[in-house]
Design goal:
heterodimer, A: alpha+beta, 4-stranded mixed beta sheet, 3 helices, B: 72% helix
């Protein structure tokens, strides 16, 4: 499972990355994490707000930090 | 893109009951703030009236809960309103609209769309991709940071509804006209070329059905996030305001920021533009300045420059806009603010 965090480096983007990693490790879900910070690469996903959460090349959320349960559900589906 | 609907965590009626109860508590506390403050200052602490320290402390003790209550209320409701206006939906609404109408709509939508500086680029690019004219995009980019609910609430709480309304409408006017003007300048050549190559016209939009309970949850989340981020600035700002209120003599600011100093408007804009503060910190200070003789026009100009044009945002936009464009952008908005400042100084 490939998890990408799209963001130009603001606090929210870092928080999202930490949170997703935390949820993954707490539930023993293994995933490869990538941080995408170049704007050209971010725009490949056509999002309009950062941070963006992409799992297996599908955009799951933009502009918010989803709650733990939602993140967990998405990780499980991945 | 999937909507974050989340599962229903409480029985449905609670989502209506709890906010309603909280609202009643809110109303009770808000309308008794003066009595509560009087009680604490004069009865519990027995502070002397007509005394600088008492004056400052009373101000602080009264204003902090008042502003926090107002902020919480408005942020909650705006959080809910925002669930009706995602950036994707905003973009869909703006697509294909004729120029001036587009500017007006963009300004209005800028008010209700959440905005953080880091999202400036994705938003900008998203609009360009949909073929939305540059001027319309700029109207949005000007309105969104400047007219945010924190600013409006603080203005309402500290100065009354007239000032809040004035700020909102003049801000909107600036956003619409500046955006329209910039559009007329045919600024496409100043956008980084890779951006223009992105135009694909393929912007699908799927209307997500967001259930009521999720909207309420979003309201609470907004309160937690925004108030959580901003409360310390409010307290600091009001503390400074309290100090000025209690200790600085009347009319002290009149010479520096008063009406007769014609250069005060441009000067406050020059100072304000590079400063980066959120509304929460700057407005209580502005209130104190106003009280001590600064004129309304100069203060408004200062506030708009600080909140509406921020250096971090310009640095971020530099990635997609060439420098001449950024200069044009800042200048047009600054001139708009200046005109507003002068008009207010003249009228008031």
């Amino acid at each position: 499972m490939l998890v990408k965090i799209l963001g130009t480096g603001c606090a929210k983007c870092k928080k999202l990355e930490e949170k997703v990693k935390e949820v993954a490790s707490k539930n023993n879900i293994s995933a490869e994490f990538q941080k995408v910070s170049e704007i050209q690469d971010i725009m490949q996903y056509k999002i309009m707000m950062t941070p963006g959460l992409v799992i297996n090349e599908k955009v799951k959320s933009t502009g918010v930090i989803p709650n733990d349960e939602t993140i967990l559900q998405w990780l499980k589906e991945g | 893109m999937k909507a974050i609907t989340g599962s229903l965590r409480q029985p449905k009626y609670l989502y209506l009951l709890i906010p309603s109860v909280l609202l009643l508590i809110w109303i009770f506390i808000y309308y008794n703030l003066q009595n509560i403050t009087d009680f604490i200052i004069y009865d519990v602490f027995s502070m002397q009236k007509e005394n600088h320290l008492t004056s400052a402390v009373w101000f602080f003790l009264f204003e902090v809960p008042k502003v926090m209550l107002l902020l919480t209320l408005i942020v909650f409701f705006v959080g809910i309103i925002r669930t009706f206006f995602s950036p994707e939906r905003t973009r869909k609404i703006l697509e294909g609209k004729p120029l001036f109408a587009g500017n007006v709509l963009a300004g209005l939508l800028g008010i209700v769309t959440p905005f953080c500086s880091c999202s400036a680029i994705p938003l900008f690019l998203g609009f360009v991709e949909a073929g939305i004219p540059l001027g319309v995009t700029f109207s949005f980019l000007i309105a969104a940071p400047m007219i945010n609910e924190v600013a409006v609430v603080l203005l309402f709480g500290l100065f009354g509804w007239k000032t809040a309304l004035l700020y909102t409408s003049t801000g909107l006017l600036i956003a619409i006209s500046a955006g329209w003007l910039i559009g007329k300048l045919k600024a496409e050549k100043y956008i980084e070329s890779w951006v223009l190559e992105m135009k694909s016209g393929n912007t699908e939009y799927h209307e997500e059905k967001i259930p009521f309970h999720t909207r309420i949850e979003k309201g609470f989340t907004a309160v937690k996030e925004i108030v959580g981020k901003v409360w310390i600035y409010i307290i600091l700002g009001i503390a400074v305001g309290a100090g000025v209120h209690g200790y600085v003599p009347e009319n002290f600011m009149a010479s520096l920021m008063g009406k007769s100093a014609w250069w005060s408007v441009p000067l406050s804009i020059i100072i304000g533009v590079p400063l980066y503060s959120n509304a929460a910190g700057i407005i209580p200070i502005v209130q104190a300045l106003l009280e001590k003789g600064a004129s309304l026009g100069t203060s408004l100009a200062f506030m708009m420059s600080v909140i509406g044009l921020s250096l971090p945002e310009m640095i971020i936009l530099k990635k997609v806009l060439k420098l001449p464009m950024i200069i044009i952008f800042v200048s047009v908005v600054a001139i708009g603010i200046m005109i507003v400042g002068y008009i207010f100084n003249w009228v008031y």
